[in-house]
Amino acid sequence: MGLPVVYHPDYVAPLPEGHRFPMPKFQRLCERLLADGVISPATLHQPERPSLEAIALVHTREYIQAYCQGTLDLKAQRRIGLPWSPALVKRTCTAVGGTILTAQLALKYGLACNTAGGTHHAFPSYGAGFCIFNDLAIAIRVLQQGGWVERVLIVDLDVHQGDGTAWIFQGDSRVFTFSMHCEENFPLRKQQSDLDVALPVGLDDDGYLQILVSYLPDLLSQVKPDLVLYDAGVDVHGQDRLGKLALTDSGIYRREMQVLSTCVAAGYPVACVIGGGYSQDFSALVYRHSLVHRAAKAVFQQYRLG
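Above: the chain sequence. Below: its structure as tokens.
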């Protein structure tokens, strides 16, 4: 058994000409992983579209209906930042199913990766920052409802604070939200996670990794989660146009190895989502998103998971 990876064949949903958000990256990521031999077709898993009841464990029915039927007002659509289309509705719902499946596979095998996910800016009644439904939160609620988990630790290393997940789980002792993000970046108004670590603009590889290692092992010992849900955003890269930090490809790979090996060595299963990434160089962006899968494969083999 190799590293289980969730892929999304329905993610070919082109945006209007000139739109900046690179939607095809999900498909290209899977293609790159296959071409480089990081994964094989035998270990790919295709998600199912979740029920509306599952999405409603987090989001209001009014918002779900308005988005799925295309009746959101223009202000709400602008806040999301993506033009509505039936294809985008399908992609969005499939993404939620992908994170649910990734979490289930992680609980079964010890480690699993999604080729999408990480929409941590979505709130119960609205979306924001390219995030429509909060796949992280929905996956956790589905797993809790099904008796798969009791306690979950969210390790959110996207460059932007996970404000939606922080708000959703405020006051919920069963879910610990940890967000390590650039202090001078979106969202302007931060929410309160269980642990927020605000990073200075321009922080480099070594500085970043030193801060991370000072928190993660203690967090695992404190929370003792049944599952770690890891948002591996690559917008921490120095060439990311929405980032403001200064990590390199090497630094991101070291980060992934640090997170995954620390959790797996301590006996905590990890479900990975790719989070944000907004480089002008599309090929470089896809490669950066592949780093968490490359690290996961190494850790999966090292600890003989499966």
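The first strand starts at residue 5 and ends at 6.
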